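Blinded run. Sample ID left blank on purpose so nobody reads anything into the name before looking at the predicted structure. Input follows.
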Amino acid sequence: MPAQPTPQEQPPTRPVRVTPEPVALPEPWSSSRVTVVVPTFDEAENLPRLVAQLMALDLPNLRVVVVDDNSPDGTGEIADKLSAELGGPEHGPLSVVHRTHKDGLGRAYVEGMTHALDRGADYVVQMDADLSHPVGYVPQLLGALHSTGAGVVIGSRYVPGGSLSEQWGLRRRMLSGWANAYVKTVLSMPVRDVTAGFKIWRASALRVLDLPSIQSTGYAFQVEMHYRAYRRGQKLVEIPIHFEDRVEGESKLDAGVALEAALRPLRLRRAENTRR
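Blinded prediction complete.
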């Protein structure tokens, strides 16, 4: 009888690949009317990629509102084309708000959020068009909102498990860390990432904030929204995310925006003290 091969001589076995069967999305995800609001200015390269990623999410009632500030690079026209390809603004999942002038990120968000609420959104997601906010976190944000009963769930860079792109240099990391520490000191908010721009709101929470009266125009808009939510009794929850660096284009941060971001917390605190 021929000798049997030793275990070391046995031919290697190939791993068996098992393709899982599609699983129906459970409640409450499957019936959640979620609208993602995306302000744009010169994001012609990034917007088609972002829309494709959002449309690939397993969220049947997902809609997207693009708020374009008359981008010179044709982002608004690209958004219109994408909307038409997806069925048009009335029957498809993508609608476009065209603004004739650029007056800041905050005003663009207010207009987009108001549009989303008027169209019946139950939950509104804020995210940038530059692909720095990974789309795959959207279902997690929604799940955290449902499970915690929060008014807003924040995709946080600064809670345990959160992280920043390795492309962020030391200067940007220090500036971001200082900004968060400064705002938390001035406003005494129990939020680690007070300047975060990736989050999901419950529609009822947005209505409590009185969007038309929001004053911030630049990145301070994020701080003002968080502060209003906190002062008006909304539950704020943070979940960790990995923050990517922008893929194409340049940052919109300039000296005026930075100055507003520094002064706004002081004005917010003064206004709140006046209300008491």
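Unblinding after everyone has recorded impressions. Strands lie at 34-40, 62-68, 94-98, 123-126, 152-156, 163-164, 199-202, 236-240, 242-243.
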